[in-house]
Amino acid sequence: MDSEKIITELTFKAVRSSGAGGQNVNKVSSKVVLSFDLQASKCLTDEEKTLLSEKLKTKLTSDAVLILNCDEDRSQLKNKEIVIKRFLKLLKNALIVPKKRKPTKIPRSVIEKRIKEKRTTSEIKQNRKRPDV
Predict the structure, then answer these.
(1) Which one of 1, 35, 99, 117 has the lowest number of neighbouring Cβ atoms within 10 Å?
(2) How many Cα neighbours within 13 Å face the side chain of 69?
(3) Which domains does the chain carry?
(4) Residue 86 above 80 pLDDT?
(5) 39-73 burial by CB neighbour count: b if 16+ within 10 A, else e?
């Protein structure tokens, strides 16, 4: 995955930010909406596309477009930088393939120790009973 090439495929849209902020909110379009078309991407391989579509299926639209937005800052430029960092981090984490778990064998000493403890507990409980007359 080449991050510089992927950034060129992103489309940005500036929107008026919602919420508190006074009169500035009504005039300035500081919220940035990032959209990335996963299937139309030329930088990603087919395997990466399938992996991303599987891992990010809750974040993708029905036509496989990832939409992220940011309105944390009053500056449009800072919001754009924040949303790009968030996007790259999201892709990087989604492309990590987890290692396959190797089931480990229980050591013989552990099994013997457990059986010995069961035996001693059983003997203790047997000693609590009333002796037969």
Answers:
(1) 99
(2) 12
(3) 3-94 (3.30.160.20)
(4) yes
(5) eebeebeeebeebbeebbeeebeeebebebebbeb
